[in-house]
Structures are given as C-alpha cells and as structure tokens.
C-alpha cells in the first residue's frame, strides 16, 4: 500500500535535489477565509501574504476518519503519520479488533531514528494536540500526563532537540502529581529547562516552556540555527494558533506566521522543503467592506456598535467552530512540486517522506 501511495506522487524530476531539512509551518485553524481576511486586514489588498507567492499550491482535505469535520488531533495525526484517525486521537489508529488503539510512527520519529535534529516551536501548550501528534501516541488528546511522559521517553532517537511552547504551569502540575518537578524531569531527560527563549542556541538540548507570548521570528531563527548544526539535517514543526474566536488575535497570528515563512524561506537554504498547511478550517466569513478605507478601520467601526457581536459583524463575522472545507497546502524547496491539485491531508506525509528520500516502514 505504501508503494502505491508513493507512486501516486509521481517520479521526481531528473536531477532533482533531495531535501536535507523539512520545516512544517502549521496554521492551526488557518483556513482559506482566515488567510484571505488576514492579508486584506494587514495590507489592504488581496493575495498580499508571502504565502500567496509560494510556487506550489494544493488543496488538502481535512476530514477525520470518523467525522467530516476534524479536530487538531486527527488533523495533525494525518499529516504526521499518513493515516487518518478518529477525532481526539493522537498518532494512534483504532484497532479493527476492538482492542487498544495502535500507535503509528510519525515523521518526527522517522527523523529521530535516522539521527536528524528535531524541533517544535508553538504558541500553544507543548502537550496540546498539534505538537503532541509529532511525538506522542494516546487515544485521548487531553491526557496531558501521559503526553508529558512520552515527550521525555521517546520511542526513537534521543528525543526532540529544541522545544519551545506554552504550558509551563501544566508541566509543573503534571510532574508534581507524580512526585517530582518539571525542572528535575526535563533535566533528567537531558534538557536545559527554562522559560526564556534566549536559551535556544545556548548549547545542548533545550526545553523552553512559558505561559505568555514570545517573539516568534527570533525564536524560530535561533531554533533553525541550532538544528542546522547537524550535518544529517533536521525536521522542525512550527505551529501558530490562528483560531479566530478572538478575531484580532487570530488574524494577527496569521501575519506573524506569514512573516516567519517569508524570513525563513530566505535563509533556510535550497536543501530545505518548506511546507505550510492547516489542520482544519474555521468559521470565519468576510461579508463586507469597501476599498475606500482600510478594512481594519471598517471592522473596528462596525464592532464598536452596541448591537454588534463577533457573530453578526457585517465586515468579518465569526461562527466559533471548526469547518470542513479543504485548506491550502503551499510549499517550496525539494519535493515541493508534489504539492498540487486536490488531495487528502495524509498525502503531505508522503510528500515529506519522499522529499527526504525515505520510504515508509513495512
């Protein structure tokens, strides 16, 4: 079956370069409507994001194994393992015999097994569904204690080299419940542990957990500089939350990630496959506005009316829920030519695996 999937990707062009590194930029809830609204809100013109200039673009189905509308756990599992699973499951698939779910190997685990450096940067909790799908295997995404345990007890390699994300208080509580401290647990697993992103690049393996925002671009640049020291290459997953239940925050995060992708595309090197996609879309609708004044001003003026809520704003309205339409996948670098047309989100796993010159385990 794996061979059939890889054949469907098509043969690489003669003389095509193999990827040494792969960077996945994951916009959590970053569907087409959200990207469109963020670009116009920030730049007052359509198709104004750097993402809109990326040379290879396709549309990815995000449905879960058991539901048409996915959550982040099933959505990211499909991208990281090439297999669809049920909502709330993290890199496991249900057993056909009705027993315990079966773990499925993630791309990060393939990279760890082959000696590449690995990293995760996220503005969500490090144990949350999207980052967890890179390294953990649990039937319930809320099982943070088990996710933390697996984070520090990798199945392959020596574990993720750079970890930056939220969830410090969660880690403190989780490890305290098991009779230790987060500091001791991470130190025992070989990490320098702290809350300052400046730790990245200071030497050795680093885990930075905090409960407030941090400057994304310097952190991602420092992470890449650290991972790139490995001559075998690296795999990095960067997640940025684009949920627009808070429209200003969500749309700002789109622009922040777009700026990251612009900068990293300029410095990562020609041997790096850069992939942007979303795990699912979201219920944002741009329903009004004219070109006579900035869209941000029009949205703010509408929002200031006493009777207007985020749900009935005539400029940009929000239905606070995941939605099931396809999302953009955009890519550059070795293997990017395989990102085209319409495809299931599971295909992105094979695109990355093929770009690195690897095959699925039998």
TrEMBL record:
One MF annotation (Gene Ontology) recorded for this entry: metal ion binding
Presence of the UniProt keyword Magnesium in the record: yes
Protein name (Swiss-Prot/TrEMBL): Alkaline phosphatase
Keywords from the UniProt entry: Magnesium, Metal-binding, Phosphoprotein, Zinc
Active-site residues annotated for this sequence: 72
List of residues binding Zn(2+): 28, 243, 279-280, 322
Required cofactor(s): Zn(2+); Mg(2+)
Signal peptide: none
Details of cofactor binding: Binds 2 Zn(2+) ions. Binds 1 Mg(2+) ion.
Keyword Zinc: yes
Binding residues annotated for Mg(2+), in chain numbering: 28, 128, 130, 239
